[in-house]
């Protein structure tokens, strides 16, 4: 398996993600964000389990109340009845738990290595890994197979249960655009003194197509309007634009219009403002910022504004034409936007995997 290259971070205050191997007595596992070593029960533990179950059945047979037997053993009534049926059918050996489905390997070793490599380099979840392997014609994986593989190697990560917020989607392209600013992001110049820049992005609501993204030196409205004008020239005038209540978009005085709002009025574009402290309302662009942070800003260090601009502009092409989107049923935004077909084979167009794409091809060809 290829070694994982060290990563640099756009924000020096952002904690790095853990991504390494760990060794211990009798195991070697991949540790990624809460990954745990695979559980392997020793023969001594199995013998103790069988003795405990046989003793519970003996106390029950001798007349002990079933409730007290279950309380002492820590099992349910149904489990106790199931142990008795197994014991009567197969003797004491039947009290051993049978291997669960998925503990044994169900994928070729080569595919297992590829899945683990992709997991280490991208942090994709099991559903994305399975979808990427299927659509790129690498291997017909299911997300269940990936889940079990990651669990065996300790590369799974527990996730808290999230309460989904309200969802909406416009029916057609150019009905609603989402615009937002992100920052500051840290720049490290040749002198070593840290500076900052911001990013402004436009996302189409229906297709999640990234209409434009720029690295800008400040949060002034002039940069926002410049990006908006470029997007309109390329994609046409939208019906509505949604933004938050930041100073580039909304005037401080309610009775006045900001430069951004006056420009929208001149273009006859309806301006939708989110309510205060409701970022999920502008969720399409907020989700894009999280993706950009994980796939670009956490992996590179920019020396100047030009380098930041080149990085996000290059990523925009990958995002729109090569990155599968779970909310679009694993289509690319370009497929939803204008029907551009997805023709990728392998991972050559995935930035995080481009360095090992040739190795993947050699392994699969062999």
Please provide a written account of the structure:
The chain is an alpha/beta fold and 366 residues long. Among the domains are: 43-95; 176-321, 2-Layer Sandwich (Nucleotidyltransferase, domain 5), CATH 3.30.420. It has twelve helices and seven strands. The protein has a five-stranded mixed β-sheet, with helices on both faces. Strand 3 and strand 4 form a beta hairpin. Helix 5 crosses helix 6. The protein starts with 18 loop residues before the first strand and ends with a helix. The model is unreliable at 1-29 and 31-35 (pLDDT under 50).
Q: What is the fold-level CATH name, i.e. the topology of one domain?
A: Nucleotidyltransferase, domain 5
Strand content: 5-15%
Q: Could you state the CATH homologous superfamily of one domain? A: Ribonuclease H-like superfamily/Ribonuclease H
**Uncertain ranges:** 1-29, 31-35
Provide the fold topology.
Blueprint lengths: L18 E6 L2 E6 L10 H19 L4 H8 L3 H14 L18 H14 L3 H10 L7 H10 L23 E13 L5 E11 L5 E7 L4 H15 L4 E4 L15 H8 L3 E4 L9 H15 L7 H17 L11 H6 L18 H9 L1
Parallel strand pairs: 3-6, 6-7
Antiparallel strand pairs: 1-2, 3-4, 4-5
């Amino acid at each position: 398996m290829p070694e994982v290259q060290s990563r640099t971070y756009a924000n020096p205050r952002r904690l790095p993600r853990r991504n390494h191997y760990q060794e211990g007595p009798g195991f070697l596992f991949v540790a990624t964000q809460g990954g745990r070593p695979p559980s392997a029960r020793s023969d001594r533990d199995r013998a103790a389990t069988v003795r405990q179950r046989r003793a519970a059945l003996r106390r029950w047979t001798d007349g002990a109340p079933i409730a007290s037997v279950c309380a002492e053993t820590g099992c349910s009534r149904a489990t106790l009845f199931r142990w008795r049926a197994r014991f009567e059918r197969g003797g004491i050996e039947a009290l051993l738990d049978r291997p669960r489905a998925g503990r044994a390997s169900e994928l070729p070793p080569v595919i297992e290595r590829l899945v683990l490599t992709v997991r280490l380099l991208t942090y994709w979840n099991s559903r994305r890994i399975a979808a990427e392997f299927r659509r790129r014609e690498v291997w017909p994986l299911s997300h269940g197979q990936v889940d079990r593989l990651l669990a065996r190697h300790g590369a799974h990560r527990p996730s808290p249960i999230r309460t989904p917020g309200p969802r909406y989607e416009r029916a057609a392209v150019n009905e609603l655009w989402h615009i937002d600013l992100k920052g500051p992001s840290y720049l490290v110049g040749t002198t070593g003194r840290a500076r900052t820049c911001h990013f402004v992005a436009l996302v189409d609501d229906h297709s999640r197509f990234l209409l434009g993204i720029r690295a800008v030196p400040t949060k002034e409205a002039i940069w926002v309007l410049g990006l908006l004008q470029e997007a309109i020239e390329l994609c046409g005038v939208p019906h509505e634009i949604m933004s938050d209540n930041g100073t580039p978009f909304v005037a401080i005085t309610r009775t006045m219009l900001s430069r951004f709002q006056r420009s929208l009025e001149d273009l006859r574009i309806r301006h939708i403002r989110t309510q205060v402290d409701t970022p999920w309302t502008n969720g399409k662009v907020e989700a894009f910022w999280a993706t950009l942070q994980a796939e670009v800003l956490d992996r590179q260090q920019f020396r100047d504004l030009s380098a930041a601009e080149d990085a996000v502009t290059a990523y925009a092409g990958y995002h729109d034409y090569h990155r599968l989107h779970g909310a679009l049923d694993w289509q690319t935004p370009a497929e939803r936007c204008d029907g551009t077909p997805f023709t990728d084979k392998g991972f050559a167009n995935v930035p995080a995997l481009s360095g090992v794409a040739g190795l993947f091809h050699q392994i699969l060809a062999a």
